[in-house]
Structures are given as C-alpha cells and as structure tokens.
Amino acid sequence: FLWTIRRDPPAYLFGTIHVPYTRVWDFIPDNSKAAFHASSSVFFELDLTDPYTISGLASCQMLPHGENLQDVLPRELYRRLKRHLDYIKLMLPHWMTPDQRGKGLYADYLFNAIAGNWERKRPVWVMLMVNSLTETDIRSRGVPVLDLYLAQEAERMKKTTGAVERVEEQCHPLNGLNFSQV
C-alpha cells in the first residue's frame, strides 16, 4: 500500500515485504513507483546497505557468550533441528539454479551464509532461519529483497537515504520472546 501525506512537497509511506523483489515488482502499482522516483529522500525500516547495521543484526542474533543452542533447546528438538539442517545441506546443491552457479555461488558457501554458526544463535533467529531454508527461497538467493533493491536504487539515483529504526529496536523485541512464544 502507498499512503500519501498531503503537504508541499508530498510525503509517502510505502509498506514493503521482505521477499525477493522479482516476486512482487510487477505487481507494484505505477503510482508507487512514480512516488519513489519523484522522492528526493527515502527512508527504510533499517539501512541494509550499512555494514554496521548488518554486523549489528548478526551479533544481536547470538546467545550470550558461552551458551550454545544445545544448552537451551530440549534434547529431542535439538536433534531434529540438526537432522533437518543436515538434510538441507544435502539438498542445497540440487535446489540451486544454473544462474546462481553461473554467478559463482556454491552450495557450501550459501549454506554457511544462511546457517553458519546456527548453534550459537538464539532460538527465535534459528526459527526464522529455518523458515527461509526452503527450495523456493534458496532458488531466489542472490536476488535482493524489495527493501534492499529499493535502497540500492535510491543510492544509484543519488537520493538521500536513511533508516527509521535502529538494529536494537528490531532485535530486542524478538530477543525478549520467551521459549514458548518462539
């Protein structure tokens, strides 16, 4: 949806979704694309082009120092998770597209990029990671999600960019969920 705040110049609020932009780009109305092009400043949920944002997201996902997922998950759930990730690692080469391989993307690299250090992550982040380890999601890896695509386009068009949230504002609520909520 695109909301317009009627003022001079107008301001817009556009709701995005965290999926590869190629899945939704053709369905974004022309008025939303026109508003993006007409805007001189664009602000996103987080600045996904900022290395500090990316490293902050990575570090907030980790369990406190010295803890491992095996210490916090019930034994049987941990075993099921490990078996599932072993299965994903086995299937990953079959799920990858020729285009991904042509760009030099290897299954082991992709698995480590998504699931690397999973034994040190908090359960909520492991759950989100597992939800993204499907054949459909793997086939779209290498294509930026809509937010990142728009941020890259904004930078290419020399627009002023920024973020409306900090990493902590994203991380702390998720990290505050108890085990039964996760």
Q: Could you say which overall geometry the principal axes of the C-alpha atoms support?
A: globular
Please state roughly what percent of the residues sit in beta strands, choosing from under 5%, 5-15%, 15-25%, 25-35%, 35-45% or over 45%.
5-15%
In DSSP terms (H or I, runs of 4 or more residues), the helix count works out at 11
Radius of gyration from the CA trace?
Answer: 19 Å
Biggest sheet layout: 2 strands, antiparallel
Find the count of extended strands (DSSP E, 2+ residues): 4
Q: What low-confidence regions span 5 or more consecutive residues with pLDDT below 50?
A: none
Based on helices, strands and strand pairing, what is the structural class? mainly alpha
Distance, first to last CA? 29 Å
Strands of the largest sheet, in order across it?
1-2
Helical fraction equals: 40-55%
Q: How confident is the prediction overall: mean pLDDT? A: 92
Number of structural domains: 1
Order of helices and strands: EEHHEHHHHHHHHEH
In short:
By secondary structure, the chain is mostly helical. Helix content is 53%, strand content 9%. The strands form 2 sheets. Strands 1-2 form a two-stranded antiparallel ribbon. The protein has a two-stranded parallel sheet with strand order 3-4.
Index terms:
11 helices, hydrolase
Describe the structure.
The chain has 182 residues and is mostly helical. It has one domain. Helices cover 53% and strands 9% of the residues. It is built from eleven helices and four strands; from the N terminus they run E-E-H-H-E-H-H-H-H-H-H-H-H-E-H. The protein has helices at 21-24, 30-38, 51-60, 69-72, 75-95, 98-102, 107-115, 123-131, 135-139, 146-156, 167-175; strands at residues 2-5, 11-14, 41-44, 160-163. The strands form two sheets. The chain has a two-stranded antiparallel sheet with strand order 1-2. A two-stranded parallel ribbon has the order 3-4. Strand 1 (2-5) and strand 2 form a beta hairpin. Helix 3 (51-60) packs parallel to helix 11 (167-175) and helix 5 runs antiparallel to helix 7 (107-115). 8% of the residues are buried. One of its GO terms (molecular function) is Wnt-protein binding.
